[in-house]
Amino acid sequence: MAVDREQVLRSAAALLTRKSTATMDEVARAAGISRATLHRHFAGRDALVRALESLGIAECEAALATARTDEGPAAEAVRRLVREMEPSAGLLAFLYTENQLFEGEEQNEGWARIDAALTELFRRGQESGEFRIDLTPVWLTEALYGLLASGAWAVAEGRVARNDFTHMIVELLLGGALRREEP
Q1: How far, in Å, CA of 19 to CA of 88, rounded?
Q2: What is the pTM of this model?
Q3: CB distance 123 to 74 below 8 Å
Q4: DSSP letters along 138-174, please?
Q5: Which of 74, 102, 82 is nearest to 148 (CA)?
């Protein structure tokens, strides 16, 4: 029986999103395969995490392309992007906590491409006057990652409705938490 590698990765991502300390045995069970079969595809946890990283990067890049972040008002582009990234947010939440992915010389250049695209989106919003300029585009990029991860965890735990995901992230990111006086 052939093993569908993508199905194994998606099963691993779903489990690790809920339980980041899951063992390779637990990952194999979640994927419906034996531990030996899992190890034939991924030599160990690090190899599995690297494969999940590649999947996460591919999904982020696809979301960026679909969201057309270089078109229209920057705020609307952010809204489209968050909506497109929502299906991958759980995987991103897991990857966000995997520090070894962001250290040293082995850092995947895909993250640099994604960071650059997001930073450019926020810079564009600042240049057009849509976004405040006292927060750097790099900080806004990091804030977006953090909000995506937090939103994914809150939805997974049932503390936030899935339908509210995009609205809550975009409104907090772009509007801030301060209540504005109504005229």
Answers
A1: 16
A2: 0.87
A3: no
A4: HHHHHHHHHHHHHHHHHHHTTSS-GGGHHHHHHHHHH
A5: 82
DSSP H/E element including 125: helix 109-127
Residue 62 has pLDDT above 80, yes or no: yes
Residues 43, 29: Cα–Cα separation, whole Å: 16
pLDDT at residue 172 tops 90: yes
For residues 84 and 63, is the Cβ–Cβ distance under 8 A?
A: yes
C-alpha torsion 56→60→63→68, nearest 10: -170
User: What pLDDT was estimated at residue 36?
Assistant: 93
Gap between the Cα atoms of 160 and 164, Å rounded: 7
**Residue closest to 137 by CA, chosen among 122, 158, 116, 149:** 122
Tokens describing residue 87: 């299906």
Angle at 47 between CA 45 and CA 52, to 5 degrees: 90
Residue tagged 């585009």 (tokens): 137
Note whether 14 and 30 are within 8 A (CB). yes
| Chain CA centroid to CA 45, Å | 20
Nearest CA-CA partner of 82 in 156, 151, 10, 128: 151
Can you tell me the distance from the alpha carbon of 77 to that of 57, in angstroms, rounded to the nearest whole number?
A: 19
